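Could you help me review a protein record that somebody else here produced? My question to you is simply how this chain folds and whether the tokens agree. Thanks in advance; the entry in question is below:
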Amino acid sequence: MTLCIKRASKSLATIAPLSLTCKVRFLFPSSFSLLHSLPSPSSPPEPDSSSSSSSSSDETHYKQLIFNTIDEKPWAFCNNKWVSNKFHAIIVDPHLFIKVLNLMRERPRIALRFFRWVEMQPGVKRSELVFSVMLDILVENNLLRSAYWVMERVITFHMHGIVDVLICGYLKFEVSVKLLDLLLLVCSKKLMVDHCLWIFDKMVRTGLLPDVKNCNRILTMLRDKSLVAKASQVYRMMKEFGIKPTIVTYNTMLDSFCKEGEVQQAIELLSEMRCFPNDVTYNVLINGLTKNCKLEQAEGLIREMLKLGIKVSAYTYNPLICGYFKKGLLVEALNLGEQMVSNGVVHTVATYNTFMYGLCRWGRLDDARQQFNDMLKRNMIPDIVSYNTLIYWYCRIGNISEAFLLFNELRCRRLVPTVVTYNTLIDGLCRVGDLDLARYLKDTMITQGIFPDVYTYTILVNGSYKLGNLSAARDLFDEMLHNGLEPDGFTYATQVVGELKHGDPARAFSMEEQMVAKELPPDLIIYNVFVLWHSKLRDFKEACNLLHKMISIGLIPDHVTYTTIIHAYLENGHLRKAREMFHEMLSKGLSPSVVTYTILVHGHAAKGFLSLAFMYFSEMQEKGVQPNVITYNAMINGLCKVRRIGQAYKFFAEMEAKGILPNKYSYTILINENCDVGNWEESLRLYQEMLDREILPDSCTHNALLKQLNNDCNLNAVRQLETLILECKESCGAET
């Protein structure tokens, strides 16, 4: 089909994009018609006129001139360096350009070559209509790769009006659909979400249904940008206008729902699928269910896959194994590994990495190392994640030598350490106090072409402060800024804490102004640090002022903020103020933690206000906050102070009945009270029970025992106790 303009004003073809809509038909009723450029033999000749004859002569002249030029100079129009003044009229007149292109339809590649050349000329006047004609020629000749290039130019020059040209019926229906689909493809590859949605909406509402592959691309974009509501809208419109979803459509929607935690909607979509689900479908659902802690349901889907004969793979099992490890269900995770083998599923490196990280997380580093060795035995090559995992956990337990052995091994395997690898080792060195080697490693990574990031410097700054090396901490912070790295909130929090503890408090408080100047206002963590500092200084007024300041700037104080102030009040004997702050915390809708209740119990019990201590102890359990060993110790200590040792023993027994193991402080409190009342036999029994349970006493325990026994001059008891103490010390020495 040919897009002809008989009498339309040249103002239609301007540099600015045309915002054409279907109304253009009424504005220019005789300007647009889709006709062949040459009349068919059966058509009666149109009335002749001098103006139309002249116009036809012009376009025929230029057509022949283009062909002759290429015949004489084959390199003509190949690039913008080829120059000719003979075609200036076409460059500045889209109306003429359209007519010339229509006459060149039988030679589409020459038409495209000339089009490209015109496009690169200075002063060219672009028009959506010119691009439409060129695209029409290319699509009719199945030159889709070239059409893709032209459509990219449409996007580059923001010629959005072409959508209306294509929709309003000026080209063949099939061609319009193809070109709109091509436009959708280009926009989706450029991640132009809003533009894709606009084109999709216009197409379906005018009956030009896009290809389902393009719909799937739109859904994928929306999923990746977490725009689930819009993805659901597109999916509903697909069904409403008769675009049949494919398995890719369903899988993309399932993944969208799962990523947003809308697992129930994903399950409902599975039930309405009109095609048979495949392994990707189930893998997506298993991953989504696992992330939402629905582990049993996820494992049920694996059983369903096996029953239906759908292939299971490491992609099926890995998320669920990870989920079990996160919950601390190590037996279930390891059983899944065995189930994989029995079902013929080969462990991948990612599988081993999941096992290694999960085992390390729960303190089973030796078992994780065995997984690493098993991987090597199977001739599988560990990746950098494998090494980083083990290096991290060896550093966490202080085994720096083993971490560096792994570091050397990964380099021998020609794996390239990442900034994460170096940061992990630097952190490990800072933890053991070897700041010099940590800084040397930082310099080494630079020589290897791996540049420190903000985390590298934050680790070093933190390590320097902890060792009391203020000058090193400040130098490293300045070096980070000099290298163009912008500190984040955690970096500032590290410096604030370091300066408050070891340096200049005024410098710490000035950090707040620096953060605001960098449009990185202090967050809740930093304000909590400031509140803690003032509370420790007993500057309760300033601590409360900070609390109100947080609220005024839109930060919502959390239970940590209030607990810090409550603790400070209790420590300084201001019990009424502490209770008032606690009630304010509740009025703000905040839920007290076990720490909050424990300090309230301890603060009141230690001062002899047992009725209030009992009240908080009961209240916390009513609200579902379970007491821990420290909470019970606070109650036991408070009861012992008022000589209610019988009740103290009841709390001790209740604690054990709930599966909360007593610690050395639990025993020391009871030993101290029994010694105070002269019940040295019970004291010795408790002491022996500690040793039997491998709970190591400390100097406080021994002082509690010896103070009364020495006063009573009970030599037999003293000798017996000294023997026990010596045995305990020998046992500790042997373990060391």
